[in-house]
Amino acid sequence: MLHLPVGINTFSSIRTGGYVYVDKTGHVHRLVLKQGRYFLSRPRRFGKSLFLDTLLELFQGNEELFRGLYIHDKWDWSAVHPVIKIDFGEGGVRSREELDDKIREMLIVNQQRLGTACQFQSNSGCFSELIRLAHEQTGRRAVVLIDEYDKPILDNIENPDVAREIREGLRDIYSVMKARDAHIQCIFMTGVSKFSKVSLFSGLNNLEDLTIDSQYAAICGYTQQELETCFADHLEGVDLDQFRLWYNGYRWMGEAVYNPFDVLLFLQKGKVYRNYWFETGSPSFLIKLFQQKRYFLPNLEGIEVGEEILSSFDVDRITPETLLFQTGYLTIAENLARYGEQRYVLSVPNREVRIALSNALVTGYTQLASEKFQIKDTLRNALLVADFPALREVIHRLFAAIPYRNFTNTDLLDCEGYYASVLYAFFASLNARIIPEDVTNKGQADLTVILDTHVFVMEIKLVQTPEVEGNPALEQIRAKGCSEKYRDQPGVTVYEMGLVFSRAERNLIALDGREVLGAAASS
Hints:
The chain is of the alpha/beta class. The protein has 19 helices and 13 strands. The longest helix has 19 residues, at 96-114. It is elongated and about 85 Å long.
């Protein structure tokens, strides 16, 4: 049985060390048939570095590594090119000075490997000279590979002034490649985000973006067929349907794929379902951005965006939707044609991301630690038996436990959307299906929550006073008839529920509900 390549990003180590390798050289072959300048954005831990290393070994002519692979009998192994590799994946930089030092060190390593020596002192001058010398000394155009091109900026995204300085330093380097185009056979750049051409690629406007090109949807990640073929020995005893629900679902206009990190860790760690990929990154900046922009979290259930939002990211203009997509918390569920333009419906890719992201949102929006697990258990149990007094008690306890001193400098708590967002995060963490702003022919409900065979159609109101007479939220939902479309469905029990929050109390002051017995049920 071949070994699992956990944590191995070098093509030669995988091919010579007896590890499973999922053959991506079909994509490689399509790219290298001609001179090309390519860009690929994928979330972290998705195999970008391994793909780049595969290109490096191919252009260096290491034929033995490719025996038995798709590209082996289709490549001219005498066509060896000098390769310049710039990799920002290791370590981090916290200033423009540290960035310049890191670039200088990488240029020295490339000079030593290629047997050249730059005369120019500036990083941009040395990089330009290195490309030219590599071509002139070998007679073959240079190949330039840049891994994690955006990491120095993203590492400092919470400090915009530093991020801007680093952005300018990177732009100085990347702009060199346009001027040296005649000396370059191939450029391949990878990263998590796609910065706008104006901000970072103003001098390199000939890059072909492969990010949402359906031909390259599976250029990184494992398709279902690749999983079942290459890992057949390791998958013994695994429920493939359950596995697919947990870890598949990432789409870039083509076939859905698995994150390789999840697959490898799941198989290595005893086939236990956990949040392997999610735990390697922190969405703290994303949660701060949500709060800053007063983002209505239930909208995460179905976001429709245009092309510009998927390919335009900058330090000075960051939208939650773009960040969610480019970091992998949302993926393309559907593409639509509207009025002659492309639009995309985004959704959470799988169960791992849904549960882990909702738990992170619960922590970020409530600042609760261990208490959240007891609250989640109590909330789920109350929903499953439609115990409205218990629901009122647990939701009141939830908001009473939130340390409001953490929000003294914001008006977030004075927004109805905040209370709906906290509830959404808790319901989503229960793996419930949630429909925000659920529309009927008579109006819309704020939230519909479906858990097992129970459907809760909810209205949320925020009032000024510490007390309220009756339950205006439940009265409103009854008047709208928002539950009608769920009535009379076999095996489903439908409830209407009204929740009233008070600005003065900053808590729930009324929660009432009723079971809807059928289409003919009276109000």
